[in-house]
């Protein structure tokens, strides 16, 4: 009896399991695509799970290319895919240490097949190949080859993750910055312009290669990176996530590539002026457009880089409303806080700013910030009949101030004001003229044609002074080191032409770039030259250092003339005695 009941129970379990497999099989039916009589695709939704994957965009067909080898490897791991990836990752690091590049490449391929939608794998290993492995070789051609392998690896990743903005963005970063900022950037940029195979690969990925042409009608790495950035922005607008990347950095990448391209073009000896100005003008227009793009923030609201002035105006308007509602309260809170300051801070606060040294000036601003009342502190002193309106205004002002602070911080992250003005000034004729004349001055100095070099240097310096006067932010340009070096060359020209002034100064009093030299701590170089000359004068013997003409005063002309005559008579007598001693007996 017991054996019979046990058998029946087992049969019942088996039948139940078989019945349960039917709905599971129906739910798991894959989606298929068939073509009708006219050849148009007709998608069959499949089961419920397939439809849910389609709606959420989780199916591999929606994420990217389906690789049969990859799917087979996933099944072969029997659910241990994560462990296999970790082991392979460790093995790849071991191959890297041993400099076994072939096995490293093969291991990376295995990782990609096991986890084709794990973005960090593609990013990490592409960076490893392009940045770490490439520098292990001495020949720049071999280095460029491994940079290309990293780019190829990223492109493979975009095939499996076609709507992933981060991979598209990182591809643009490697093409732009690794080729354009490496120590071998001159050779890398030249190799890239001639690399037709890589250009074809990019074209197959939907990159408009004609949009990447420089003035020589060959693709430029900065403009190619820009196209990848634009592609990543489009993927983001189609719903892709940028992860933890800063929105302002993400959206400013295309225009910064344009800036880098124009900046490198300016350094070439015979740049095309009209082409260059058009690129700078394009960059300026894109900075304006960037300022109008709504950028997401972690505070739940969006910001725009161009709304600083409007936010300041709104804050000023609301502050006036709050002060009108609660007259005198702001000053009362300020005075109460001032009374609580330490004696040292209070003294620093009460003294005028122009009388303070650096340390006291810092205390002055610290105290100023400490006594400034917050909006909620002002609203907290409102009478009951005005408390609700005061708190509403205080909350509005606090939100506006938070938005303003975040906007200012975002502008600083990309140095918005500087690069916008850099692009605006770069699009002018005076900018190209200043750079052309500087280049010509150096050429004349190398000939050497000192007079011609002097004229060109001075013409260029006047033009640079006009640029700095109109766009003051350009005084902080990192490329000004090259301009400072040009001033030093100009000083050498003046020295060789013996054009020091009466006091020994080497630069004219109206030198147009004096402020630039001071800002770059080059005034000390000029002072050193003067002190060096002075010390050389002081080290000379007293007879040579002080001549009768230099020490004579009014009324002493006769004494000096007598001293000169006596000295001449003495020298003549000595010369005569020496000549007589040398006569033969």
Describe this structure in words.
The chain is flat. Among the domains are: 117-245; 305-415, no CATH class; 428-538, no CATH class. The protein has a two-stranded antiparallel sheet. It has 29 helices and 4 strands. With 585 residues, the protein is mainly α. The protein has helices spanning 2-27, 48-56, 60-63, 68-76, 81-98, 101-114, 119-133, 140-160, 165-181, 185-194, 196-204, 221-237, 247-266, 273-291, 308-325, 329-339, 343-350, 358-371, 375-379, 384-413, 416-426, 429-446, 450-470, 480-496, 514-519, 523-538, 542-545, 548-551, 557-581; strands at residues 32-35, 41-44, 295-296, 302-303. The protein starts with a helix and ends with a helix.
Number of helices: 29
Please state roughly what percent of the residues sit in beta strands, choosing from under 5%, 5-15%, 15-25%, 25-35%, 35-45% or over 45%.
Answer: under 5%
Portion of residues within helices: over 70%
Which class of secondary structure composition applies to the elements?
Answer: mainly alpha
Q: Which residue ranges are poorly predicted, with pLDDT under 50 across at least 5 consecutive positions? A: 60-69, 527-538, 540-585
Described by strand count, sense and barrel closure, the largest sheet is:
2 strands, antiparallel
Using the alpha-carbon principal axes, give the shape.
Answer: flat
Cα-atom radius of gyration: 38 Å
Strand order of the largest sheet: 1-2
Distance between the termini: 161 Å
Number of strands: 4
For the residues shown, what is the average pLDDT? Answer: 81
């Amino acid at each position: 009896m017991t054996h019979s009941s046990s058998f029946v129970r087992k049969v019942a379990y088996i039948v139940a399991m078989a019945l349960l497999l039917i709905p599971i099989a129906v739910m798991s039916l894959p989606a298929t695509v068939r073509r009708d009589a006219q050849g148009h695709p007709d998608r069959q939704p499949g089961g419920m799970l397939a439809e849910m994957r389609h709606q959420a965009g989780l199916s591999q067909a929606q994420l990217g290319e389906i690789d049969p080898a990859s799917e087979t490897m996933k099944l072969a791991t029997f659910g241990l895919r994560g462990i296999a990836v970790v082991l392979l990752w460790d093995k790849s690091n071991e191959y890297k240490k041993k400099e076994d590049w072939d096995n490293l490449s093969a291991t990376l391929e295995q990782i990609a097949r096991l986890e084709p939608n794990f973005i960090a794998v593609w990013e990490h290993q592409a960076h490893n190949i392009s940045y770490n492995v490439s520098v292990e070789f001495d020949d720049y051609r071999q280095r460029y080859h491994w940079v290309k392998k990293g780019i190829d690896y990223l492109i493979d990743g975009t095939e499996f993750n076609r709507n992933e903005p981060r991979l598209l963005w990182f591809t643009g970063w490697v093409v732009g910055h690794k080729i354009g900022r490496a120590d071998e950037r001159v050779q890398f940029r030249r190799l890239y312009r001639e690399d037709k195979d890589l250009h074809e690969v990019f074209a197959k990925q939907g990159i408009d290669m004609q949009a990447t042409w420089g003035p020589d009608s060959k693709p430029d790495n900065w403009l190619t990176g820009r196209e990848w950035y634009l592609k990543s922005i489009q993927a983001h607008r189609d719903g892709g996530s940028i992860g933890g990347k800063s929105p302002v950095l993400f959206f400013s990448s295309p225009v910064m590539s344009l800036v880098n391209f124009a900046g490198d073009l300016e350094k070439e000896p015979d740049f095309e002026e009209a082409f260059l100005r058009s690129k700078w003008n394009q960059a300026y227009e894109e900075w304006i457009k960037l300022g109008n793009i709504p950028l997401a923030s972690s505070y739940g609201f969006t910001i725009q880089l161009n709304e600083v002035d409007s936010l300041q105006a709104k804050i000023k308007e609301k502050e006036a409303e709050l002060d009108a509602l609660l007259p005198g309260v702001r000053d009362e809170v300020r005075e109460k806080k001032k009374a609580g300051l330490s004696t040292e801070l209070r003294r620093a606060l009460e003294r005028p700013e122009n009388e303070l040294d650096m340390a006291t000036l810092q205390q002055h601003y610290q105290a100023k910030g400490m006594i400034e009342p917050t909006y909620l502190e002002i609203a907290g002193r409102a009478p009951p009949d005005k408390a609700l309106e005061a708190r509403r205004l205080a909350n509005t002002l606090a939100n506006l101030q938070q938005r303003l602070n975040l906007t200012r911080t975002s502008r600083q992250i990309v140095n918005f004001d500087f690069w916008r003005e850099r692009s605006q000034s770069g699009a002018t004729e005076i900018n190209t003229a200043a750079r052309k004349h500087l280049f010509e001055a150096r050429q004349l100095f190398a000939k050497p044609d000192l007079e011609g070099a002097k004229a060109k240097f001075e013409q260029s310096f006047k033009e640079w002074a006009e640029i700095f006067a109109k766009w003051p932010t350009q005084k902080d340009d990192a490329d000004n080191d090259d301009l400072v070096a040009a001033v030093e060359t100009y000083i050498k020209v003046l020295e060789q032409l013996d054009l020091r002034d009466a006091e020994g100064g080497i630069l004219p009093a109206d030198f147009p770039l004096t402020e630039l030299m001071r800002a770059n701590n080059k005034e000390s170089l000029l002072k050193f030259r003067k002190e060096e000359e002075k010390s050389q004068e002081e080290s000379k013997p007293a007879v040579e250092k002080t001549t009768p003409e230099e020490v004579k005063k009014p009324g002493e002309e006769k004494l000096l003339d007598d001293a000169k005559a006596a000295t001449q008579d003495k020298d003549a007598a000595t010369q005569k005695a020496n000549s007589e001693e040398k006569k033969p007996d």
